[in-house]
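Technical appendix A lists one of the benchmark inputs used to test multi-chain prediction within the project. The record comprises two sequence entries:
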Amino acid sequence: MSKHLRTPLKTVRGLGSARGGTHHFTMQRITAVALVPLSLWFVWIALSLVHLDYAGARMLIAHPVHAVLMVAFVISVFWHAQLGLQVVIEDYVHAPGLEIAFQLAVKFLCVLGAVACVLAIARIALGS
Amino acid sequence: MPQAARPKSPHLDIYRWQIQMVSSILHRAAGVALAAGTVLLVCLLASLAAGPEAYAKVQSAAGSVFGQLLLLGWTWSLAYHLLNGLRHLLEDTGHGFQIKTFVKTGWVAVAGSLVLTALVWACVLLQRGGA
């Protein structure tokens, strides 16, 4: 039997501890630290894009260093965004069905966004 | 559910606005805004991969008055979320929790975000003037 006072039913209903809180905290910090230099680099890239035409913009992102950094940036961004939005939804959406729907939607959209960006970067870098 | 009948703790409207709560609320608001901004990130990269016509569409949308306002908002959101995020990382190490320090770093994040935004847009305007 359980050593805890909380009945197992609470966990079975999906409202108990998922024992994943520390992982959430750690990944939020790791992606945050990664995004400090990456977002500064991204601002520099975005500023460069202002005065570049299509061919120039494509050549800039196609450079192996920038392509790799862009992949790292988009993965960190969508990962960090999902972790942050998850907490916002946990704090403000209390209707059980709606909360799960929002959490799933955010997760799916973040993964789709990241995959779409990575594919686009691959196409740009490989010239297809 | 019995929870519904319990008294609730006082919420935002009962407190005097101060930098401690404003910096926290702004951090979350800027984060949500930046998450919305990822739509443009996807559009930018996807259109760059798709071809000149698609890229031109994204360029003209970003260059419109509405687009420029959004970009200005996202610039500030990124600047603030970055600076206040660094403040959070400092606090994760156990530092910066004395009230005086906490208030000071809060103001540094707010003022610094305005300075960074101004710097970025000065670069944009200078490039446009030179081009």
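The interface with chain A takes residues 28, 31-32, 34-35, 38-39, 41-42, 44-46, 48-49, 52, 55-56, 78, 82, 85-86, 88-89, 92, 120, 123-124, 127-128, 130-131 of chain B (CB under 8 Å). Residues 19-34+65-130 of chain B form a domain with the 3 helical TM bundles of succinate and fumarate reductases fold (CATH 1.20.1300.10). Comparable benchmark entries are summarised in Table A2.
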